[in-house]
Amino acid sequence: MESPIRKKMLQAFSESDGEFVSGQALADFLGCTRTAVWKHIEELRREGFELEAVRRKGYRILHAPDKVTENEIRYGLNTKNLGQTIYYQESIDSTQKKAHQLAYDNCPEGTLVIAEEQTSGRGRMTRSWHSPKYSGIWMSIILRPNLPPQQAPQFTLLAAVAVVQALEEVCGLNPEIKWPNDILINGKKVTGILTELQAESDKINSIIIGIGMNVNSKQEDFPEELQKIATSVAIEKGKIVSRSSIIQKILEKLELYYHLYMEKGFGPIKLLWEGYAISIGREIIARTITGTIEGKAIGITNDGVLKIEDSSGRIHEIYSADIEI
Ligand code: BTN
C-alpha cells in the first residue's frame, strides 16, 4: 500500500500538469520539511520516475514509469465501484488466489487485485499463465451479484466484451473472441479470462474475474511453446502502450455491462458478444475433459453455453472446452 504522503505528492505533480512545483510548495502541501520532500523525491527516482530539479524553480516529473500501482490506476479512473479498492503487490504468486482470500474475508465489491508479476499465474483447465514483470496486465476483480450460480458463465462472456471494447477504444485494435473467453488479434491470443466462483448451492457469494493480457511483450519474450499462438498489444500496434489506461477502460466497461446485465439480463450482452465471436457458424473441434466433439458451432444458449451440431445433426451443449477452429 502506498504511503499517504506519496499519494499527495503525486497528486501535486499531476495537478501542476508538467510545470515545476517548488520544494517549499510541496513541503507546505504535504505538511513536512523540505528535507523530507527531498527524501520522497529520491524515492520516486528509485522507483523509475524521471524528475528534473532546478534551483529556485523546484521539481517536475519528466517521465512516470509505466507501473500499475494504486496511484497510476486511480488517477483518471471513471468508475463508482470497480477498482475503487485496490490491492497491489509488485510480485505475487497469483492475483486470482489473493482475490479468493479477499473475497472470503468480505472485501468490498469491485475490489481489484493487481500485480506487476505473477510467479504462479493460473490459466483455465489447470494450466499455468506466463506473467512476467511489467509487460502485462495481471489482475482479478471481485463481484458479488445476487444471482444463482448457474448464471456465472455469463460473466465470462460479459468480461470478454468489456476487454474487447477497451482494446478497441484505447488502442484502436480489432480483437475477436474465441468461445468462451480467449481474446485474439490476427488469430493469436492476447488475453485470457478466468472466471471463478465462491457460491452456495443456490446463491453466488463472489465471482472472481481474472484477466491476463500481454501488453508490452515482444515476440521473443514469449516462451517457445507460446511464440506461434500468443501476441501482445505492442506487437499488434507496433508501439508500447500504457497499461493503466487499458486497465481503467476495462474497469469502466465491466462496470457499465455489469449494471446493464443486472437491469436487463443477459440478452444485450449476448448480442454484443456474438458481434465479436469468431467461432460461431464455423466447423470447430471442442476438446472437453470427457472427450472431443467435432461439428459446427451454431450459437450460444441464453446461459452462455456453446452449442455444437455434429454431422449426425445432434446438438451438444459445451460448458467448458478448448476450441480449435
Ligand atoms: C486462460 O487460460 O486463458 C485464462 C488466463 C487467466 C490469467 C489471469 S492473470 C490474472 C489472474 N490471476 C491468475 O493467476 N490467473 C488470472
UniProtKB/TrEMBL annotation:
DNA-binding region, residue range(s): 23-42
Positions contributing to biotin binding: Q118, R122, G123, R124, K189
GO biological process: protein lipoylation; regulation of DNA-templated transcription
EC number: 6.3.4.15
Domain BPL/LPL catalytic: 71-262
Keyword Transcription regulation: yes
Pfam families xrefs: BPL_C, BPL_LplA_LipB, HTH_11
Catalytic activity: biotin + L-lysyl-[protein] + ATP = N(6)-biotinyl-L-lysyl-[protein] + AMP + diphosphate + H(+)
Keywords assigned by UniProt, alphabetized: ATP-binding, Biotin, DNA-binding, Ligase, Nucleotide-binding, Repressor, Transcription, Transcription regulation
Cross-referenced PROSITE patterns: BPL_LPL_CATALYTIC
GO-annotated molecular function: ATP binding; biotin--[biotin carboxyl-carrier protein] ligase activity; DNA binding; transferase activity
Family: Belongs to the biotin--protein ligase family.
Entry-linked PANTHER family: BIOTIN PROTEIN LIGASE (PTHR12835), BIOTIN--PROTEIN LIGASE (PTHR12835:SF5)
Protein name in the entry: Bifunctional ligase/repressor BirA
Gene: birA
